[in-house]
Write a structure and sequence with these properties.
It is a single chain. The chain is an all-alpha fold and 79 residues long. The protein is built from 4 helices and no strands. α1 packs antiparallel against α2 and α1 crosses α4. The chain is elongated. It starts with 7 loop residues before the first helix and ends in a 9-residue tail after the last helix.
Length: 79
């Protein structure tokens, strides 16, 4: 299994993305608009993180591994 040197702030942002996404999946979520805005903000923060400009970040498997690493009890390959 590949290991990538993910920065802590990128890991936290991806974990928060998963948490926010799960909060939106419940029926009739409270503060849905706020959660959608947060999900968009986190998506931008993750997508444009400087890590993706490094040699390790260029590898396509890095994004998959980040999602797998941070998905918790959810399967990252379904995302």
């Amino acid at each position: 299994m590949d290991r990538f040197p993910f920065p802590d702030d990128l890991i936290r942002a991806q974990q928060q993305w998963h948490d926010t996404y799960r909060a939106l999946t419940v029926p009739r979520p409270r503060r849905a608009a706020e959660l959608r805005r947060r999900l968009l903000l986190l998506s931008v923060r993750i997508h444009w993180h400087p890590f993706w400009s490094t040699p390790d970040g260029w590898r396509p498997a890095a994004r998959v591994e980040l999602r797998r690493l941070t998905a918790g009890d959810r399967r990252a390959d379904a995302a």
